[in-house]
Amino acid sequence: MKENEILEEIHRIRAEHAAECGYDAKVMFARMDAELERLKAEGWQIVFPAPREKQIASSLREEPPKTK
Predict the structure, then answer these.
(1) Dihedrals φ, ψ of 33, to 5°?
(2) Residue 36 contacts by C-beta under 8 Å, 6 or more apart in sequence?
(3) Is residue 49 very low, low, confident or very high in pLDDT (cuts 50, 70, 90)?
(4) pLDDT tens digits, residue range 13-22?
(5) What is the rounded CA–CA span in Å between residue 13 and residue 21?
(6) How far apart are CA 1 and CA 24, in angstroms?
(7) Mean pLDDT over all residues of the chain?
(8) Taking a C-beta distance cutoff of 8 angstroms, is the pair 43, 36 a contact?
(9) Does the global pTM surpass 0.70?
(10) Is residue 6 a contact partner of residue 13, using CB atoms and an 8 Å limit?
(11) How far apart are CA 36 and CA 17, in angstroms?
């Protein structure tokens, strides 16, 4: 497989971040929440994806085939 510099950088940064947080998910999420609040304070608009059940429901609108 070819080396992908972008993916390698993402993996490196994730590993560094996890190590800085002691591999504690609560600490990682607290840092993420603090970063989101900082961005909001700077005027950035934070957009979250739609809940998964709404995404699935919107893609299942096709009528089933009619049986004879």
Answers:
(1) -60, -40
(2) 46
(3) confident
(4) 999 999 999 9
(5) 12
(6) 32
(7) 85
(8) no
(9) no
(10) no
(11) 16
Cα gap 57→20, rounded to integer Å = 40
Identify the DSSP state of 24: -
Cα–Cα dist 17/32, whole Å: 11
Decide: residue 18, CB within 10 A, 0-12 exposed, 13-18 middle, 19+ buried.
middle
CB atoms within 10 A of CB 31: 13
Q: How many residues does the chain have?
A: 68
Return the CA Rg of the chain. 20
Measured between alpha carbons, how far is 34 from 46 in angstroms, rounded to an integer?
Answer: 13
The rounded distance, in Å, linking the Cα atoms of 11 and 53 is 30
Q: Give dist(CA 7, CA 20) in Å, integer.
A: 20
pLDDT band of residue 60 (cuts 50, 70, 90) is low
